[in-house]
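Support request from a user on the community tier.

User writes: "When I paste my structure tokens into the form, the page sometimes reloads and wipes my input. The last time it worked, I copied everything first. Here is what I submitted, just in case something in the input itself triggers the reload:"
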């Protein structure tokens, strides 16, 4: 039950309450203003699906109420008996019972008593009452209302309510208790199918994500085929599970779709990259080029022809560039390749210092 605030407005008690689906508001009231005996329990329930409000008055004793305003003089016969058939509305009663107002109740009514007007037990605003059966003797009183207020703020005021025992209408009073009711609508109400669909969608995405994560093998593919297969699966999953950026006022739906979108973003960051392993350059190729460079340097030192010398320098530079490109493409993997490369670098240094 949601909390209520109470205050007095003149002789009227006003309670500001809020009710929502599945959580009824209850109040306990004494029919005698100075009594500690809480004769009745008031229960207010909101049915969001039907957009209706039910007000119930319950007691461990029999209750009697008027549906509408009724003048006392028109309700009794010459002998002072209450005649249910004279009521301004139809109600059920036991014809064998002789109904009367108790002396105590009559004494509480100011003269002229015959002109006294009893009030209907309930008044309301922002509501439309549904048809209800009325009886002289009641274990409980209940009225169902259709909610008319688009803002979901309505008012209910309890008025004349009496106890009835052995045909006597006993103590009772004008309760003058008004409930200012705010109807709290559950934003998730009626969205069970949407929440179930969101949950199933998230569950399926989790399964696909785990499969894709396993396929990614930590982000490193052992073959080009494995990398290509991963990309195909990733594209398929992303196509099947796009982001859902719709706004949801239902917290449960929002939470599920937020988790879904977060996983979609994580899915897009998964990678599986294939990096070919370099076999390394044949060290014999490097050493062969070293010998060619050395031979050209020797010829350079023995020649006095400027043209021949220039051609030898150019040939060496071309060979040095070609060797470096071969190493760049194939890499240096084992020690023999690295030793051959070290010899090559020394030959290049000697060549460039000598054959200028």
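"...and here is what came back when it finally went through:"
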């Amino acid at each position: 039950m949601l909390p209520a605030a109470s205050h007095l407005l003149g002789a009227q008690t006003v309670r500001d309450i809020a009710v929502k689906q599945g959580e009824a508001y209850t109040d306990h009231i004494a029919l005698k203003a100075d009594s500690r005996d809480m004769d009745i329990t008031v229960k207010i329930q909101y049915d969001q699906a039907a957009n209706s409000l039910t007000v119930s008055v319950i007691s461990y004793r029999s209750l009697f109420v008027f549906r509408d305003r009724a003048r006392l003089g028109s309700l009794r016969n010459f002998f002072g008996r209450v005649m249910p058939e004279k009521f301004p509305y139809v109600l059920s009663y036991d014809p064998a019972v002789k109904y009367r107002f108790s002396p105590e109740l009559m004494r509480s009514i100011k003269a002229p008593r015959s002109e006294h007007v009893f009030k209907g037990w309930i008044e309301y605003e922002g509501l439309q009452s549904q048809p209800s059966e009325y009886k002289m003797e009641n274990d409980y009183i209940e009225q169902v209302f259709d909610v008319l207020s688009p803002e979901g703020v309505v008012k209910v005021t309890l008025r004349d309510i009496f106890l009835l025992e052995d045909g006597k209408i006993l103590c009772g009073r004008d309760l003058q208790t008004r409930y200012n009711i705010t109807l709290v609508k559950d934003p998730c109400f009626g969205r069970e199918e949407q929440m179930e669909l969101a949950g199933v969608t998230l569950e399926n995405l989790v399964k696909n994500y785990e499969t894709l994560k396993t396929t990614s093998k930590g982000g490193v593919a052992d073959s080009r085929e494995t990398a290509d297969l991963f990309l195909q699966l990733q594209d398929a999953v992303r196509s099947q599970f796009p982001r859902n950026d719709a706004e949801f006022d239902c917290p449960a739906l929002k939470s599920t779709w937020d988790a879904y979108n977060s996983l979609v973003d994580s899915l897009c960051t998964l990678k599986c990259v294939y990096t070919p392993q370099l076999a390394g350059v044949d060290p014999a190729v490097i050493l062969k080029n070293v010998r060619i460079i050395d031979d050209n340097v020797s010829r350079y030192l023995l020649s006095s022809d400027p043209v021949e010398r220039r051609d030898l320098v150019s040939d060496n530079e071309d060979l040095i560039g070609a060797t470096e490109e071969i190493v760049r493409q194939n890499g240096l993997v084992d020690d023999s390749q690295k030793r051959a490369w070290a010899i090559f670098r020394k030959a290049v240094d000697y060549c460039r210092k000598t054959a200028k």
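Agent notes: The reload is a front-end session timeout and is unrelated to the input. Residues 192-274 form one domain. Residues 6-10 have pLDDT under 50 and may be disordered. Escalated to web team.
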